Amino acid sequence: MPTGPQFHDRYRTIDEPRILDAIMLLGWAFHEPTDTIRMAARRALGDWIKGGLGVRMTPRGARLFDPVEVVYHLKNAGRLGQDDFWGAHYVTTSRRLVEELRTRPPGRLDMTLRRRFRLRGVMPGRTLRLRMPLPLASRCNTLDIQPLDMPEGGTYVLADGRLELHLRATEGAQAWLGARVGFTPRPTVTEDAPPDPALYLKPAEGLIRITEPVAALSRHLAGTQPPGYAVRAFWDFILDTFLAGPVHYDQIPADTPLDWVLASGCCDCHLASALLVALCRARGIPARLVSGNFVYPRSPTMHYWAEIHLDDHGWLPFDFMSWDLSRGGQDADWRDCFSGRVDARLISQCLPRACTGPIGIPISPDWRVLQTAEGGAVKIDLVDLDGHSLHTDYVTVETENRLEKETVRYMAKT
User: Fold this and answer.
1) For residue 173, is it within any domain?
2) C-beta neighbour count of 182 within 10 angstroms
3) 119 and 245 co-located in one domain
């Protein structure tokens, strides 16, 4: 039986207001934040606490939460039929994000990407090389990049798929870098065949680890079926077996991460995609990981998915966002929404060849992600065990409505 991720008081360090902000983005991304919606989010949180969600009380009576545990609980409660937030709000919002992008005319996308680095503990005078991801040129038909204002004393280095800031650390506690990007995504991968098939069959690469349990599972699911049928079997198994949600990476053994997935019954987008890639590679099917950002104007969050090479079709994408869209695989109309195809994306990594690389500051193994809406952008906060930011991304997708508002604001000022 799956054990699920382990939750403890030491993870419960995020204050209630930030948790409510995250819940509002998950369930009400298409609504302006109001007191009424915040009250609904607070009621949902209260229901989950009654249903067993862990909470830690401070000496002053404030409630602290673990964002990983909150999302896991709301999804699991929805899957078990114990609570309706997942289906009524989370799944509905996710589907609206996909449908809204489908109705947008294809063409150029304009985004603003900004990253703030917390530099606590960095010795003044140390030379920093800070990085943030940008679109890969090979995944765009057109690409324009305009770096934002550079910090005094810094130097920008623009490379394919990333922006670097070389800066000497001062007494300041933070540093910023960012860019405006305009690009036209390529709807399909243009490579006809893997340039180096062995590269995409490697048994060990990051989270992709073909252990004996993974290899045995691949043999069991695929049998002697042709590659296309084998991929179908792998896809169905992952959709039907696991809960797709955030995890605590400090609980995952570095040498057997996918064995942990098989034992826990839970995986995020990175682990689910790595498992699909590993099952394919064990069967001799070239596969790789891809990452970037959704370009949904109301929720342009970070994401991972897989690409698999089939001789008759070339590289095909497979994205386990389909798990939420289909209510855990239960809704046939959405189950294969991102099987063999995905919508427009900002693609910043195509591993292992195109990688952003180290971001330039230490990242503790007990990090968590907290995503909220702030000032027209989505704020993606990587926080440590104490709840302090390590780095924060602010991502904005420009829309006609937002551009009209900015024009009105500018005219009012002038």
Assistant:
1) yes
2) 16
3) no
Residues 368-385: what's their mean pLDDT? Answer: 94
Domain ranges, residue 75: 7-103
DSSP state of 198: G
Does residue 151 share a domain with residue 90?
Answer: no
Cα distance between the two ends of the chain: 65
pLDDT tens track for 16-71: 999 999 999 999 999 999 999 999 999 999 999 999 999 999 999 999 999 999 99
Indicate if the alpha-carbon torsion angle 173, 16, 265, 79 is positive or negative.
negative
Answer yes or no: do 391 and 371 share one domain. yes
Q: How far apart are CA 2 and CA 242, in angstroms?
A: 9
Residues 39 and 163 in one domain: no
Same domain for 92 and 134, yes or no, is no
Contact 380, 302 (CB under 8 A): yes
| C-alpha span between 171 and 65 (Å, rounded) | 32
Nearest 5 degrees, angle CA 223-CA 226-CA 232? 80
In whole angstroms, give the CA distance from residue 241 to residue 359. Answer: 34
